[in-house]
Amino acid sequence: MKSVVITGVSTGIGHAAAETLIRNGVHVFGSVRKKADADRVKNELGPFFTPLIFDVTDEAAIRRAAEDVRKELNGQKLAGLVNNAGIAVAGPLLHMPPDELRHQMEVNLIGPMMVSQAFGPLLGADPSLKGPPGRIVMISSVAGENGQPFMGPYAASKHALEGLSESLRRELIPFGIDVIVIGPGAVKTPIWDKANDLDISRYANTPYAKALGNLKSYMLKAGANGIAASRLGDLIHHVLTADKPKTRYRIVPSALESFMLRSLPKRTVDRLIARRLGLTKI
Length: 282
Prior knowledge:
This protein is of the alpha/beta class. The chain contains 10 helices and 7 strands.
């Protein structure tokens, strides 16, 4: 039986990917941060799911989890690693506390790198293991190609993740380990529910107060109309099993909006976004 590690399986994309892979005969090792979530997800997903408890910013815990997986694999290689866990830090960059930006990068960039380093040997960098080399799937975002106002930390982390992924893919050629990026648009996951909890009051005395309120409304609408997480689960399964996967996949709710963002002149896109959020000159 093939085995795959997925980070962030408590809800959303990670949980959907675990469901899809298990349904297709894959054993999933999935990370969560809390014992209660480990027990819940284990109960939901059944005997072909093994919980791993670690935070992607805790290198020692990640290394311990990799050793646990190595023992379970008993000399076989992992078929895949899905770096899914992530957060979104929002706010105007001129007023962003540096520690919040650092935390964004720790979770969304340094975390996936530490996880890849820990599990890389099990994917094929360790020549003593048996079986074909595995693949690394990096869950990026449309923000890996475009930067939206007030989502600068998130966009920076995903742009960086995509650059890191391309470099890593080329470095892993000698081992036969592929690295594939998936850049989805809005997905119906609990991360969008957190838009309700977004504290914009601390920016009430800045020129961005009204636009941030508009952003909050836009995020709630985007989440409600987003892609079903199950579609991402199906895509992740495809990426891990296809004979010749692409290096990057884009999956978005609106193909037209995606095309416009990629095709229109940047200044035109600037004006469209400013109009949508009410970003007017002072």
